[in-house]
Here is the input.
Amino acid sequence: MSISEHTTTAHALTFGQRGFLSRFGPSNRTIFPWVLMAPTLIILFAIGIYPFLYSLYIAGHNVILSKPYIPQHFVGLYQYQAVVQDPEFWHALRKTLLFTVQAVFIEFWLGLGLALLFQRQLQGVAFMRLFILIPMILPPLVTALVWRYMFYPGAGLMTYYVGAVTRALGLGEIPFLSDPVIAFQTLVFVDVWEWTPFMFLMLSAGLASIPRQPYEAAEIDGAGSWRVFWTITMPLLRPAILIAVIIRTMDAFRTYELIVIMTRGGPGNATTTLNVFLTKTGLEFFDASKAAALSLIMMMIIIVMSFVFIRVFRSKTEVAE
Amino acid sequence: MNVMKTTAALAAGLALWTLALPVQAQTEAQKALSGTTIHFLAPSMPQFAALGKFLPEFEQKYGIKVVVDEVPFENYRQKSLVEMQQGTGTYDFFAVDVMWLAEYAAAGFLEPLMPYVKNTDLTDADYDIDDFLPRVISGTGVFNDTLFTIPIGAGPVGTTFRADVAEKAGFKLPERFSPDFTTQYMFDAAKKVNNPESNMIGFANIPGRWFWGVTYLPYLYAFQTPETKGDEYVDKDWKISINNERTVASIDYFTSFKQFMPSDSANWGIGEATAVYQAGNAFGTWNYQDFVKGFFEDPETQAKVAGKNVHLHTPVGPNGVIDPWFGAWSLGLSKDSKNKEATWTFIQWLTSKDIQARATQYGAGPSRHSTYKSETLAKYQPWWPGVYEFMLKETNPDERIRVPEWAEISDIMGEEGNRVWIGEIDSKTAAANMEKRMTEAMRKGGYYIPGRDDLPKQQWRDLTYYDRLPSSWN
Here is the structure.
C-alpha cells in the first residue's frame, strides 16, 4: 500500500467517524438533548431507578440477609401482605402520623410567627436571625445526642433544672424519656426545636416576595391587621407554605436519628415510628424482603400525602386568585 | 542513692520477670507473615480494652499490624452482620457474642478453626486447646459440631451489692451460690435498704427494652421448676412455650423492683444502672462477671464503691432453680479474610495461656483452666475462682436457645416486658404477646414447615454434649 493510499484510508476513516459522531451533534435536535442529559440520566438510573427496581425485586422474594441458606424464590405480594397484617406496622404508622402532624403543625405556626416578627425592622434582627438558624444547621445526629444528654436521668441539664422546679412544686421527677406519653412529646419538642428555623426561613422568603400594593390598598380601605393577615398575607403566602409544609412533612415522616438515639423506639414501643420499625426489620432482623416491601409502602404513603397537599393547596390558591 | 538502688532493683526484677515469661519461637510460616496488616471489628467493651493493651507486644513480636475498629455495643451486631454479608473481607476477624454464633455460623460467615488449631506451622506448640473449659469453648464457639470461634473470657451474669450498706442495716449478705440467696431474700434486702431520700435506692435494675435478653433472663430461669428447666422458650418440638404462669411470675418479680427506682428508669440500660451504683446511690445492681473489675472494683474510677462490694450469682428461685447460663465473647475468623493465616496467628497468640493469664490484671475474664488457676487472676480478680466449679459443672451454654432467631426473640421479649414496666400492659398479656410473636419468628425461620425432619437437636437437654474434650470438635 502506497503512502497516498494510506492517507486516503485515514482521511476516509476520519471523515467516517466524524460522520458517525455528527449524528449525535448539535445539528441533530432529536438526539443531542439526550446526549447532553446522558450523564445525569446514567447517575439517576444508578442511584435512583436501579435501587428502586431492585427493591421491587427484593420485595417480591424471600431474602433474609443473615440466612443466606434459605432458598430464595418468588413470593408475589406476600411481603406486602406480611407488612399490612403486622400489628406493629399499624402501630408504627399511627405513631408516625401523630408525630408528623404534631411536629409540622407546631413548627408551621411558630415559624410563621417568627417570620412575621422578623419582618419588622427591629434592632438586632440580623443577629437574632442567625441565632435562630443554629438548630437547623446542626447535624441531626448531633442534635439528638445533645438532647439525649440534656434529658439523661439524674444528670442531664433539663432533668436537673426542670426536676428541681417540679420537685419544689411537689410533682416529683418528670420521666422525660421513660413515660410513653411524655417520651413521645419530648421527641416532638426536640423536632420542633430543630426544624422551626426551617419553616421560619422558608416563610420569611415567602413573605419577602409578597408585593406591597395589596397591603397599601388594604390600608386605604381601613382593613385591620387580623383581616389583612387572613385575606392578603396567608393567600399570597400559600406557594411558600405549600413547599415548606411538603418538605417538612416528608422529613418528619422519615425522622430517624432523633428517635433512635433518644429512645430507640421505647419505652416499650411508644416511640416506634415507621422508620424505626423499618430499620429494625431490615438491619436488626435482616429481613430484607419485608423491609423492602415496607419501604415501598412508606414511599407510596409519602407520594399520596404530597399529592393531597398539592391538590388542596392548589385548589385553594386558585379560589383565592 | 536510695533512688538509684531502687531503680536498679526494679530494673533487675523486670529483666528477671521478662526472662521468666514463656518465650515462644516463631515458626517459619509465622515469620513469613511479617508485614501483614489485619483488621478487627470489636465492640467498645472492657474486655476488649484489656486485650488491646497487648497489641504492641504482638506487633513487635510477629511484625503483623492489627488495626482495631471499635463500634458501640448497641450497633455492633448490625455493623458486623452487614460487613459479613457484603463479603468484602474488610475485616479479617470479628468479636462474636455467644448468642450470635448460631446466626453467623449458620450463614457461613465464619471459617472453621480446628484446621488452624491443628496446623503446627501456625499454632504455637503450647497452645493446648484442651486447656479451655469444655462447656465454655463448646458453648461459645461450636456450632453443628464445628469449632468456629475461640473464647476470650466467659462468665455468668450475677448481682453486686454493697456489703457496708447491708452491715449498717444490720444484716450480712450470703456467700456466692448460697441457697439462702433467694429471689425473696433479694427483694426483702432491697426493700430494707431502700431510702431514696438519702440517695440510696434498693436495687438499680436494668429494664431498658434492649437489655431484657440479658438482665431479665436470670429471673425467667429462677422461676422455673426442676421439671420445666429447658422449656423456657420452646418445647421439645420447637413450639414456643413461654406463655405460662412461670413467665408471668418472673416478669412480675422483675418489675417489682420498679418501686425502688426513679420514675425515669424505664429506659435504663447497663450504663445508667452502673453509673448510679458507682456513684454510691444504689445498694445493688446487675453484673456480668467480666465487667466486675472494670465497673465496680477499680479504686481509681470507682472510689465510692471499690472494695466495698459482694459479688453474688443471681438469686435462687422459689422452686430452688438457679440461672445456669453464661455470657461470653469470642474471636471468629471471617471466611472472606484475605489474611487468614496472619489472623489466626494473632487469635492463637491472644488466646494463649500466657496472654490470657496476664490479661486478667486489666479485667479480662478467664476461659482456660490455667487462667482460673493463675496467680494473676487470684491477685487481681479474687472473686473469680469461686465461679470455676460452676462453669465446669453447672452452666448450660444453650439455656438461652442459640438459634439464628435469637435476636428477634430477645427483641420481642424486651419490648413486651418493657411495656409491663411502664404500665402499658400486664404480665399475662406480655407473656401471651411474646408467645404469639415468637411463634411467628420461628415460623419464618422454617421450624414449622410440615414434614420437616431436619430440625436441629436441642443440645441443652443433654449437657454431656458440651463436656466433650475441646480438641474433639471438627
